[in-house]
Amino acid sequence: MKTIIKFIPVVGAVALLAACGTTMEQRAATGAIAGAAAGQAIGGNTESTVAGAVLGGAAGAARPD
């Protein structure tokens, strides 16, 4: 549980900063990549990497133009 508490704000910040692109798909892809990298760095396992990618992709897709 402590890992998730540390994980969510970091992934959100990284995803929003890294989510670049002109279309929603591009922003979701760059957010997912940044989220996966942050998830791996924080959690160090597959579950953290996948969760980071999901959160990063969602944050990138939700970012307005």
From TrEMBL:
Cellular component GO terms, alphabetical: cell outer membrane
Extent of the signal sequence: 1-28
Keyword field contains Signal: yes
Top-level taxon: Bacteria
Keywords of this entry: Signal
Designated name of the protein: YMGG-like Gly-zipper domain-containing protein
